Amino acid sequence: MGVLVLGLAVAVAGCSAADQNSSGARPVGQGRAPGFPRVPAPHPALSQTITHGLGGAGRICLTVDDGDCADCVGGYVEFAQRSGIHLTFSPNGVYASCWSPHAGTLKPLIERGQVQIMNHTFSHRDLRRMTEAQITTELERNDDWVVKTFGVTTRPYYRPPFGFHNSHIDGVAAGLGYTRTVMGDGSYADSDPITPEVLIGMAQQYLHPGVIMLGHANHPTVLGCFDQIQALIKQRNLSPVTLDEMFGTSRATG
């Protein structure tokens, strides 16, 4: 555990996998958007687990996992664009056909720091059941896809699928430059279908300074709740920030 206040399934439907050749090594800078820094080299170091943010000035992190629902991904992208709210997406490359159509919209938001992307593995499988080589492939293949599609690396942040991790997994990830294992201490509880009332109830429970909030772009309930969530954030004088903004990292250094 670091000196910061460092500090949780997926339905296979509707979206296809990215190019099967995306797991190969990439040249530095491949896929980056105009104006983006070159993709930095990895910086292996000790692993830190983040479960809570630094809540000064009402800061919160809104994170969005997976993305197996094309309408949900599109809705989140549109919400970010119209509201200006800062978001951190955690997509899986296996759902590339849901995310890639929005690359043109997301790249300017990423370039100006409003949107960040962290690693959530390529295929959203339980890393505890994998060999070191398989874990490496899951993380590197997903980062390759993100760099090719959005122009930036996901390092140093990764979120293990289902929240399942251990010291061995975190050590493998840290050796690849994923030195910050992102969990969270709040959730909309929308990994499975829920009602709007439940989702807003979870938002009311957890949206407080310092929270790292977990949502999913998998089910359409959230699409009708964006305005209420935004109003709650305003009412509580909260300031959504990306992980980079919360913890002082950057896409230029990775």
The SSE order reads: EEHEHHEHEHEEHEHEH
End-to-end distance, in Å? 20 Å
User: Structural class of the helices, strands and pairings?
Assistant: alpha/beta
The CATH superfamily label reads: Glycoside hydrolase/deacetylase
Strand content: 5-15%
Key attributes of the depicted protein:
9 strands, 254 residues, TIM Barrel, 8 helices
What does this structure look like?
With 254 residues, the protein is of the alpha/beta class. It has one domain (48-247): Alpha-Beta Barrel (TIM Barrel). It has helices spanning 70-83, 96-99, 103-111, 132-150, 167-175, 196-206, 226-235, 243-247, and strands at residues 48-50, 59-66, 87-91, 115-117, 157-158, 180-182, 186-187, 212-216, 239-240. The strands form two sheets. Strands 2, 3, 4, 7, 8 and 9 form a six-stranded parallel β-sheet that branches. Helix 5 (167-175) links the parallel strand 5 (157-158) and strand 6.
Brief account:
The chain is of the alpha/beta class and 254 residues long. Helix content is 32%, strand content 13%. The protein has helices spanning 70-83, 96-99, 103-111, 132-150, 167-175, 196-206, 226-235, 243-247, and strands at 48-50, 59-66, 87-91, 115-117, 157-158, 180-182, 186-187, 212-216, 239-240.
Topology summary:
Layout: E1 48-50, E2 59-66, H1 70-83, E3 87-91, H2 96-99, H3 103-111, E4 115-117, H4 132-150, E5 157-158, H5 167-175, E6 180-182, E7 186-187, H6 196-206, E8 212-216, H7 226-235, E9 239-240, H8 243-247
